[in-house]
Design a protein that fits this description.
alpha/beta; six-stranded mixed beta sheet; 8 helices; four-stranded antiparallel beta sheet
Length: 243
């Protein structure tokens, strides 16, 4: 039963950890991922999710916000200390603040219940495509370090240096910063950033861009509080890296 830890057989492929305490929903989600060739693990407990994510390699984690043990926010925070798996959060709460908090602790995307399992699978696939694309580009040796002001971004090592300090960024934050820095001064619309960073219109939510830009700005400021705002907002259009 999904209320306790369980395995669901599937052909070899990407692995997904489903963390959902509603048994019927967890079973439905697991079935959809299994049909798509994912290796599926299921748990309904936040603490167990952290332990499972640490004990076994997973490509993506579908993480419910409301969980027993510890909630999805805290589980996400703990998992992010040791794992760079893609994390998509599920929430039944419509309050915007919950979604923003979830993304600020390292989630890559979210869906609000009720949702279509097909949409969930599609959005997970989009996240994984983005991750594979970034890896393949780096391995091809096409990316050289980018320096903008006091910031140096190295796509090969996926590191961001501000002054003499390395800034820890999630995969999404790094890809967003790297894309903006690829053409300093150019204004990218939110739609263009969603396409480039999240993998396409299936994940097309402008709020995702705004939240991650806000969190990225905060990390850069914490790294050097004397640094001016390098990511500029162009009202009604999108964002640009100051040239």
């Amino acid at each position: 039963m999904p209320g306790s830890d369980s395995d669901i057989s599937s052909p070899p492929g990407e692995s997904v950890l489903i963390v959902e305490d509603e048994s019927s929903l967890a079973t439905i989600i697991a079935g959809y991922f299994t049909k798509e060739g994912f290796t599926v693990k299921v748990t309904g407990n936040g603490l167990h999710a952290v332990q499972m994510a640490r004990a076994m390699p997973v490509s993506v984690i579908v993480l419910d916000l409301g969980l027993p043990g510890i909630d999805g926010i805290e589980a996400c925070r703990r998992i992010r200390t040791f794992s760079d798996a893609c994390i998509l959060m599920l929430t039944a709460r419509v309050e915007e603040v919950d979604e923003l908090i979830g993304l600020s602790v390292g989630a890559d995307d979210y869906l609000t219940k009720p949702f279509s399992p097909r949409v969930l699978v599609a959005r997970v696939k989009a996240l994984l495509r983005r991750t594979r694309s970034a890896t393949e580009t780096t391995q091809a040796g096409n990316d050289l370090p980018i320096t903008v002001g006091k910031i140096t971004i190295d796509p090969r090592s996926r590191t961001t240096i501000l002054g003499s300090h390395q800034i820890p960024l999630t995969k999404i934050e790094f890809d967003l910063l790297c894309h903006l820095a690829s053409q300093p001064g150019r204004v990218f619309t939110r739609e263009q950033l969603v396409q480039a960073v999240w993998g396409g219109p299936l994940v097309g939510d402008d709020q995702l861009v705004d939240v991650h830009v806000g969190h990225l700005r905060k990390k850069l400021k914490e790294g050097n509080d004397s640094v001016e705002e390098i990511i500029q907002t162009v009202r009604g259009v999108g964002y640009a890296m100051k040239g």
